[in-house]
Amino acid sequence: MRKYVFLQWVSLFLCLLLFLLGVCVSFAADAPSGWATTEVNEAISLALVPSDLQQEYKNSITRLEFCRLAMALLREKSGKSIDEILAENKLTLISGTFYDTDSLDVSQAYTLSIVRGVGDNRFDPHAQITRQEAAVMLANTAKVLGVTLPNGAPEYFYDNPSFADWALESIAFVSASVDVSNRTAVMSGVEWERFDPKGLYTREQAFITMKRLYHSILRYKGLSITANLTKLPVYTSVTKEADYGRVIQTTSSFGVHASFPSASKYAVFPTNSGFCTIAQVDRLLYIEERDSEMQFVSETSVQPKLPIFGGIYQDADGYFYLLTGKENREEQNTEVLHVAKYDSRWQKVAEGSVFGNECSTVLPFAAGQPCMAVKDDCLVIYTSRQRYTSDDGLNHLSNLLIKMSAADLQILSISPLFPGNHVRNSFDQYVQFDGNVIAYLDRSDTEPRRILLTLEKDGLFTAYPLLDIADSLTDNKQNPSCSGFTVSAAGYLAAINSTSQQNAETARGIAVVFAPKSNPADSRIVWLTSYAESDMRVLSAPMIVKLSENKFVLLWEEFDARPETDIRNRGLTYLDTKYAVVDGGGTPISKVTSIAGARLADGLQPIVLTGNRITWYTINDANKSYKARDTITGANLFTFAKPYIKIFSLQID
Q1: Same domain for 45 and 173?
Q2: Which of 116, 245, 370, 602 has its CA 20 to 30 Å from the CA of residue 535?
Q3: Are 64 and 9 contained in the same domain?
Q4: Segment holding 209, helix H or strand E
Q5: Residue 448: is the preceding peptide bond cis (ω within 30°)?
Q6: Could you give the CA distance from residue 247 to residue 441 in angstroms, rounded to a whole number?
Q7: Is 303 in contact with 346 (CB distance < 8 Å)?
């Protein structure tokens, strides 16, 4: 009897133990993953997750469940009922379409074009969804709220060729739409920089992306619903093109190829009465204004905020944008980039900042150069940076794309670590507006080494290799210098100094790489020089100057490569300055012409004044003393030796 009672107690204990273990296992199964807990809880607090779905977080979400989430997001974000949203869009609820579900949420989502059926009047409500299907549903949900443009730049995914055609734009949208509460993309990639379009989507992932989409949508139907958030970039037709928009462009050092360009310290820009010259000495910008006859008019100076000079851009209305930066080796969320906007009298009218954590930058402009362009209210800054330390312990180099409001310099978007136009080891960066297309040019110094054209339209990036570089990473004999980029009526023109990529033994020459707008992949190289190695000529990186939509001028210097004493040009003796005129397809329409003695300043982009008159300046060896002063207080800052300048003007018929 005692043995029987004992066995009963043991059985009862084991049953209780199994019950408790089952409760613990069940509780653990109903908890979100550790990485997801914070954002899942926030999604629940925002009323984006129906109570009966707040369990089994790691299960794949179904088509019906996703519709329920989408309807919750629409209600909470708009503050309106679905019936009111349907009425706003002049839609009548479509019900009874699918015989396998009578869900109101499915009918509403179908009426709003968020989802579709699977055929034969079926919705398949309990089917699991893939990541690319989730991207389409999220993008369609945003469209209902009036959002078609993201607030960031799309990520680049290495499995892009496996995306379904119907999902391409939606994947770009969700990877470019950023949750402003934590600067995280609505949908980002998985391991190895992939999107995994056919991978399944779990409940907790769906809850998090709904929460991120909620925080990425800044406005509903044009009405502000969240205060103090950035403005979305919208590109419309322009009434005034930036005919004289110029940025300081960097070339390789004169006489030799330079693998690592840097920002130029000299510039020239047009003014209402003539032009102004700008030179950086120490940490001061010295500006001289001259009339159309090159006579001195006035002088002033500007003290940049940060120590590393980036560049200056002038827009069509005569405003100047000064870009500076500073190191951030400690990887702190400190200011690493600063933009100041000045009027034509060099009075500051706006300024904006970018911080370390926003752009993952330890060194701005590293081994590259900044380039800027403005259209409507969008200032595009395209440059390079050395990034925060990666898992391999290295600070890798890559390009960096920033968009700001041109009016007040508020941030519109900052590219993620791997944007849609991601280029590793980008050593030359250029940007130009071409209507509603933004054109980017990079020289990539990693496998594959190439000069790369990337076109952005409606937030989507398409890349076109213009010139594959034959060198290995340890050999720079054939590595070109890319020193100018512009847009013609027919296509895109890049000015280069290079050898033939088919024959490493050829001499370097000056060439134009042309990519037609009709088919940018069909690019070609047009050579302007044909020197042999025995000629012992070394050529500078060429400048390209736009006279019209179908007329361009390339200028370069030539040196004698035999050992001489000209220290300024690293032992090379200056021989000549030359130019050639090409049409919008890069074809020469003039012979190469000598203008000996008209020296070019390293990195200074010439400008065009009235009547096809190209103007630039260079630095003379003589110096004079100049006392710098603060333009606002009038106080003296310091005294330095400012070089004299020599101004040149070239008339092109």
Answers
A1: yes
A2: 602
A3: no
A4: helix 203-216
A5: yes
A6: 14
A7: no
Identify which of 298, 315, 344, 246 has the alpha carbon closest to the alpha carbon of residue 614.
Answer: 246
Side-chain half-sphere CA neighbours of 475 within 13 A: 8
> Strand, helix or coil at 174?
helix
Residue 539: name the closest of 583, 585, 590, 579 by CA. 579
Query: Residue 567: what pLDDT?
Result: 37
Q: What angle do CA 216, 217, 220 make, to 5 degrees?
A: 170
Together in a domain, 124 and 251: no
Q: How far is residue 498 CA from its own chain's centroid?
A: 26
Rounded Cα gap, residues 389 and 554, in angstroms: 40
Which amino acid is it at 618? T
Question: N- to C-terminal Cα distance for the chain?
Answer: 120
What's the structural domain count of the chain? 3
In this structure, is residue 639 part of a structural domain? no
Residues 271, 344: Cα–Cα separation, whole Å: 8
320 close to 312: Cβ distance less than 8 angstroms: yes
The closest of 112, 74, 105 to 90, measured between CA atoms, is 112
Structure confidence by residue, pLDDT tens digits, 552-602? 999 998 888 765 434 344 456 778 889 999 999 999 999 998 887 788 877
> Are 480 and 595 in the same domain?
yes
CA–CA distance from 314 to each of 181, 319, 345, 364, 373 (Å)?
A: 33, 6, 13, 21, 9
What b/e sequence results for 341-363 when a residue is b if at least 16 CB atoms lie within 10 Å of its CB, and e otherwise?
bbeeebeeebebebbbebbbbbb
CA distance 277 to 270: 9
Query: Residue 339 falls within a domain, yes or no?
Result: no
Sign of CA dihedral 94, 99, 102, 106: negative
- CA angle, 423 then 431 then 176, to 5°: 60
Question: Secondary structure of 314-376 in the HEC alphabet?
Answer: ECCCCCEEEEEECCCCCCCCCEEEEEEEECCCCCEEEEEEEEHHHHCEEEECCCCCCEEEEEC
21 and 54 within one domain: no
Q: Are residues 139 and 4 in the same domain?
A: no
Mean pLDDT lowest among 184-198, 246-260, 321-335, 582-596: 246-260
Contacts of 638 (CB under 8 A, 6+ apart): 282, 284, 627, 628
In the predicted model, is pLDDT for residue 404 greater than 90?
Answer: yes
Model confidence at 275: pLDDT above 70: yes
Q: Is the pLDDT of residue 418 over 90?
A: no
What percent of the chain stands above pLDDT 90? 44
Q: Is 171 part of any domain? A: yes
pLDDT in tens, 78-91: 889 999 999 998 99
Half-sphere exposure of 301 (CA within 13 A, CB side): 22
Q: Which domain holds residue 137?
A: 31-224
Is the confidence at residue 407, as pLDDT, over 50? yes
- Average pLDDT of 198-203? 92
